[in-house]
Amino acid sequence: MEILLVWAQLIFAGIIIFIAAHHLVSSVDIISQELNLGQTFVGVLLLATATSLPELGTGATSILLVNEPELAAGDVFGSNMFNLLLIGACDFFWRGLPIMHTVERSTVILGLFSLVAILITSTIISVESFSTYEFSLFGLMISPFSIFIILFFIYAMYSVYKSDRNEDSVNNESVKVSRRLVFAINKYLIAAIVTFAAASLLSYSGDNLSILMNWNKGFVGTQFLAIATSLPEAATVIMAMYKMKTDLAVSNLFGSNLFNTCVVLFGDDLFLTKSSFWGHINNIHIFSCLMAILSTLIIISFAQSRGTVLVKLFGGKWLFPILIIGYISAAILIFRG
Q: Which pTM was predicted?
């Protein structure tokens, strides 16, 4: 009976997140139009930030309330892999050319930044397993690596913004504060708060599930919590694809991976005030990072191989099955670990 209640909580929280994501997407679309922002930059700054709030909320509650940093780490790395799987799903159901052939150069650049961020993270995990050096920032114990990744995120955001502007995807008309913009911003904030609250319930349910089922906490984080907290990304992708905005769909997923890896993990380190967050991460997640890096490389290679033998051999509908194999392999290894 207790297990059924936990599953009910997971399902309920997932449904709330999915509903909130619908309102996030609609409000972000209005904000981007009113502010004359490019789709790739919007995909990172607004959509990716909003849809990654469950990961941030899960990280906060996993550390502050249930004292399980491993759940927070597993959620981030699992969400990254699931987001890449969603790109494969978009390609599979997209008619015509492979979906990566329809995106702008700035979206590919965003994907490269997310790849580098994950590579940096895997290196940090490896180094932290041998070193526990920490220093205080405003009275908080935080790893210098966390400072580095947040600075990298700022640099990546600026680079994507400049790339978007260079592609002339935006105009230079003056921005006027309209009632439509104010309403969209308020709607965005309310939906974001609801999403964050639902993520708190996910954290409690995930921790209880791992105890009742006697499962590895890293596995629960990378599978159940990761999939549930990636529901906003899934909802965003569905709506973007329905509106034929492939750039918005792919940039949201790449942007979410960049946000998760840099901002969410930085926040997790801040939440764990007594020690460095990185020292609590199981080395098994290095494999999760490597699988995410490999998947990102495969996806980007499709964008850079138009009309070549690679597309003829592996293009079309082959991207999704390749990513599924990688995702399942990582899940099995983490479960056994």
A: 0.83
